[in-house]
Automatic annotation (TrEMBL):
Keywords: Cell outer membrane, Membrane, Secreted, Signal. Its main location: other. PANTHER family: G PROTEIN-COUPLED RECEPTOR-RELATED, OUTER MEMBRANE PROTEIN PMPC-RELATED. This is Right handed beta helix domain-containing protein.
Amino acid sequence: MIGNTAARDGGVAYIESSGDVSISECTMTGNTAAQAGGVACVYISANLSISECTMTGNTARDGGAAYIESSGDVSISECTMIGNTAAQDGGVACITYSRDVSISECTVTGNTAAQDGGVACVYISGNVSISECTMTGNTAARDGGAAYIESSGDVSISECTMTGNTAAQDGGVANIVLAGEINSEPLVVFRKPLSQGLSILWGGGQELALGGGLCGRGGGRDGEQQ
């Protein structure tokens, strides 16, 4: 899927579905949408799976590659995402209303958002899991160089390598607003000086379990750097 354009949503595809949707083993390059989802704009009431895809140089207002509204679960796995751009939120993906979101075994490099979430901007009521990912050189002009997450569930970040991600305001790696708990075990590797605003996690009054150079603030409880 190369060089497709939409005057509104979904440069390649606009999908509305009450059943499950699976997108796999695709290459998506240089696609553009004026509003949501440079590659795909997806509104579903079931589950969405995106796996083994390469997304490069796609552009949209929200979700440089994908804009997703789902009342089910969203899974993104084994994908390579390079140089995607959002004029507002989510350089690669903007995900809203979902139950649980899982991002695993992805390589994510050089994506940009003019507002929040250089890689992903996630607004959901469920749980968020990011595991075994490499995120390098992603940029947000506001919050969350790699990810901006608002969730009323729990957030887990494990076995990830995050290097050289930047945000002009909060969270060079991630800015997280949640009502549940965050667990960054067993391993989160950050290679960036804390003086550059590595990561700020907002805990909504819950205890934060911090590791690997995270800086946390949580409802009157001081976060500790390790």
